[in-house]
Write a structure and sequence with these properties.
- With 269 residues, the chain is an alpha/beta fold.
- Helix content is 46%, strand content 12%.
- The chain has a single domain, classed as Glycoside hydrolase/deacetylase (TIM Barrel), CATH 3.20.20.
- Strands 2, 3, 4, 7, 8 and 9 form a six-stranded parallel β-sheet that branches. It has a three-stranded parallel β-sheet with strand order 1-6-5, covered by helices on one side.
- The N and C termini lie far apart (95 Å).
């Protein structure tokens, strides 16, 4: 009897373990599928993946949008850009350096930060230009069309109020794109600007000169160069190396222009 009970218990335990394992596997698969569907938000009209909104007339400004990573040109031109500000942390340092070296740049601003720190940039933009970098640096590619538009419109108005200039360029956070982002950008008549080359501060800890030398070597005519005027401490490597970067690029014959000027001169050429 005891042996039979032991055999029964063993068989029961094994069977139940197999059923449990199967259930876990099915549950994991089901969870993964659910997560995939939730995360990807299938391209239903008006969702993050769809560049259309409903079945009625698409009210999208000029009816088209241009996406730019850089330009093809024989002129030694580059556009220096800074994302995520303005904040008291480093934005004034960047503006001081650009003023000292007479370098124009394009600042892709976060609307909330522009509203809260308008005094940092008011009267200091001069030759610089501004672009929209979303309201609070959330992922626009996960938003539906209405939410993405409301986010960018709110940021647009805040940047305009803070700087006195309405942005005409958009750079979505992390460069993440979705159909809803395109739809909202078209409604606002934006040009979509990504980048050709990015600062690589993490590769040069405590070495501003080495970082500057790397960027100077990698720039090619028509480059849109991405930097940040806020962030972690390591990003100071790029900002402290800006003078060496500027001088090194000028020694190579490069001229700094805003993104809009880069696009204009490429179109003319």
């Amino acid at each position: 009897m005891a042996d039979g009970m032991r055999r029964w218990n063993r068989r029961t335990v094994l069977r139940r373990a197999a059923l449990l394992a199967g259930g876990v596997a099915l549950g994991a698969a089901g969870t993964a599928q659910t997560t995939w569907i939730t995360d990807r938000r299938l391209p239903i009209a008006g969702g993050p993946a769809s560049a259309t909104l409903g079945s009625r007339y698409q009210d999208v400004g000029a009816g088209m949008i241009e996406a730019v990573w850089g330009v093809h040109t024989t002129e030694r031109l580059l556009a220096l850009t800074f994302d995520d500000g303005p904040l008291p942390q480093w934005t004034p340092m960047v503006l001081d350096t650009l003023e000292r070296y007479d370098v124009p740049a394009t600042f892709f601003m976060v609307g909330l930060r522009a509203r809260e720190n308008a005094a940092l940039v008011r009267g200091r933009l001069g030759r610089h230009e501004v672009g929209n970098h979303s309201w609070a640096h959330h992922d626009l590619a996960r938003m539906d069309a209405h939410t993405a538009y409301d986010d960018l419109r709110r940021s647009h108005d805040a940047i305009t109020a803070a700087t006195g200039v309405a942005p005409r360029l958009l750079r979505p956070p992390w460069g993440h794109l979705g159909g809803a982002v395109l739809h909202a950008a078209a409604q606002l008549d934006y040009r979509l600007v990504l980048w050709t080359l990015q600062m690589v501060e993490g590769e040069f800890p405590r070495d501003p000169v080495g970082h500057a030398r790397r960027i100077v070597a990698d720039v090619q005519p028509g480059t849109v160069l991405l930097g940040h005027d806020v962030g972690t401490e390591q990003r100071l490597v790029a900002l402290r190396g800006l003078p060496d970067m500027i001088n090194g690029l000028r020694d190579r014959g490069y001229t700094f222009v805003t993104v809009s000027e880069l696009l204009r001169r490429a179109a003319v050429g």
